[in-house]
Amino acid sequence: MAHTVLYILFHLLFMSSYSYVQSTEQGFISIDISDKGLDFVKDQLISKAISTLTPLQLPQIEKSLTIPVVGRVQFTLSNITIYGVGVSSSTVKPGETGVTIVATGATANLSMDWRYSYSTWLIPIAISDEGSASVQVEGMEVGLTLELKNQQGTLKLSLLECGCYVRDISIKLDGGASWLYQGAVDALKENIGSAVEDAVSKKIRDGVVTLDSVLQSLPKAVILGDTAALNVSFVSDPLLTNSSVDLEIDGLFTAKDKVVISSRYDRNFQALGLCKSPDKMAGISLHENVFNSALFVYYDANLMHWIVDKIPDQSLLNTAGWRYVIPQLYKQFPDYDMNVNISVASPPLVKIEKQNIIATIYTDVTIDVLDAGEVIPVLCISLEISASGFAEISRNSLAGGVRLSEFTMSLKWSEIGKLRMHLVQSVMSTILKTVVIPYVNLRLRRGFPLPLFDGYKLQDPQILYIDSRIVACTDVASVTQVNLNQLVQNS
Ligand SMILES: *[C@@H]1O[C@H](CO)[C@@H](O)[C@H](O)[C@H]1NC(C)=O
Ligand SMILES: *[C@@H]1O[C@H](CO)[C@@H](O)[C@H](O)[C@H]1NC(C)=O
Ligand SMILES: *[C@@H]1O[C@H](CO)[C@@H](O)[C@H](O)[C@H]1NC(C)=O
Ligand SMILES: *[C@@H]1O[C@H](CO)[C@@H](O)[C@H](O)[C@H]1NC(C)=O
Ligand SMILES: *[C@@H]1O[C@H](CO)[C@@H](O)[C@H](O)[C@H]1NC(C)=O
Asked: Which residues, by range, are in coiled-coil regions (predicted)?
């Protein structure tokens, strides 16, 4: 239950591949990430990388060196540990083959133990000394290029290139006759440098594999309740322009246990860059067919019927309350309790227009008289209801509400003769306004969960209605640090 559109945003957006080829498939849900969003993802990645990078143990280094006075000895550096990494500046840039992240001016602090020993048949007494050292790595550059491709609906992340370059190292020895060996240890700079380069590159490769497994483990469908599943498969490779990364997600609801043979919705549209606000990190756009497919699924599952037996004005559920509206009903069933059977007659239709959401709903309203446990339908009225709606984001959910715009009605059948429809109309209006619309709103207010990873939240979302779509332009903020391994386990 806890996964939906935005759930994906973060996994999915760890990176995206560059592609000049226009994607052919369009999704009903699109996510556009702006430069600002990419920057945010990059910063999150780097801070996660740093926290998983340290402490990092490097392999022992051995080298034979000449030490003044002592002569040629075997020098060993062991327990080499990177315990701190700092990144002063970093960039993320889409390139022709993939997205490149470069961290420049990175620093690393290492600690290590050093020792040497020396003995020959000439001098049988072993000469040795040992101590510890701290190493400061300066001006380290780390670069990697990532590619993200659609692979049967999930995203496949691969590392195209990765490099780490250490520009300068300074070593400070403690213990032993440090002054004596400083020069010797300085000769090991290059070895330490390449050990750091190798270790960091390997760690990045491992990290990308971990991230990829996070992506692979994302569900292709998000189950909502007992009935519906939202198809969150990717329909094409991520599409990169020079100012955004676009992800296309199928975005249609299907019945939870049903295999859908063909799509009833036309995919012929273009929805790039709907969020025109470059100071927002992402635009999440939902086509009206996302909602229409959900409504269809619930309709098809026979869930759009309900029997109203409690209303604010309970007198409307007794024939006495209808005495003046339908006198013959009262005559035939004096003071009988009633209920109202509201039954949606075809899948409701949602249209998103500029500044507005319009829903059209055809329902049959059957009035039942209750006679000692027996339900006697007495008349049925067909309604065509127009409602206008709005969407909002509250606490990481997409919620909304509807208002009754207008309705028209006609008598479908009657067991009690002709009705004066204008009188019935006002009762119907009361029932719609006091029962039906509040009921629908109660449901809608619960919303459609857009959970992020634990530790992230939507910030200052702004909702736009554009061209058959609802677009949420939003920032994302991290609430706490996220542990990558935990993500793998959770997904
Ligand atoms: C490795 O170094 C750390 C800190 O410098 C020290 O606490 C630890 O005892 C050392 N381990 C060994 C096996 O010498
Ligand atoms: C490395 O050590 C220096 C001095 O000891 C300190 O100023 C710096 O913040 C440390 N850097 C990291 C990344 O731990
Ligand atoms: C991005 O591409 C558009 C046209 O495709 C161009 O007008 C614009 O200058 C480009 N922006 C950058 C920053 O390269
Ligand atoms: C989900 O969408 C993908 C891409 O449109 C499609 O190939 C797949 O069959 C859909 N899955 C279901 C269960 O409808
Ligand atoms: C409610 O009305 C529909 C037709 O409008 C009918 O099919 C259904 O059986 C009725 N439900 C009940 C419980 O009477």
From this structure: none
Determine the distance separating the centroid of ligand 5 and the alpha carbon of 305, expressed in angstroms.
8
Pick the atom of ligand 2 nearest to 85's CA. Answer: 13
Q: How much distance in Å is there from the Cα of 272 to the middle of ligand 3?
A: 15
- Beta strand 253-255 with 244-249 is unpaired
**Is the confidence at residue 13, as pLDDT, over 60?**
no
The response to whether residue 366 sits with its C-beta less than 6 Å from ligand 5 reads yes
Q: Is the peptide bond before 55 cis (omega within 30 degrees of 0)?
A: yes
CA distance 290 to 301: 17
Measured from the alpha carbon of residue 137, the closest ligand is 2
**Gap between the Cα atoms of 66 and 64, Å rounded:** 7
Ligand 5 centre distance from Cα of residue 81 (Å)? 73
Per-residue pLDDT, averaged over 245-264, amounts to 79
Q: Domains of the chain, with CATH numbers?
A: 2-34+225-476 (3.15.20.10), 37-217 (3.15.10.10)
Segment 184-193, tens digit of pLDDT = 778 888 999 9
Residue 339 and residue 319 in contact, taking contact as beta carbons nearer than 8 Å: no
Q: How many CA atoms lie within 13 A of 277 on its CB side?
A: 16
| Alpha carbon nearest to ligand 4 atom 14, residue | 260
Going by their DSSP bridges, the two strands 99-118 and 29-34 should be labelled as unpaired
480 lines ligand 3 (CB under 6 A): no
Q: What is the pLDDT of residue 270?
A: 66
- The answer to whether residues 390 and 370 touch, using CB atoms and an 8 Å cutoff, is no
Buried-exposed string 217-247: b where 16+ CB fall within 10 A, e elsewhere = ebeebbebeebbbbbbbbbbbbbbeeebbbb
User: For 49-92, how does the pLDDT look when each residue is reduced to its tens digit (9 = 90+)?
Assistant: 888 888 999 999 998 887 777 777 888 899 999 999 999 999 99
**Higher pLDDT pick, 437 / 447:** 437
Is the shortest distance between the CB of 153 and ligand 4 below 6 Å? yes
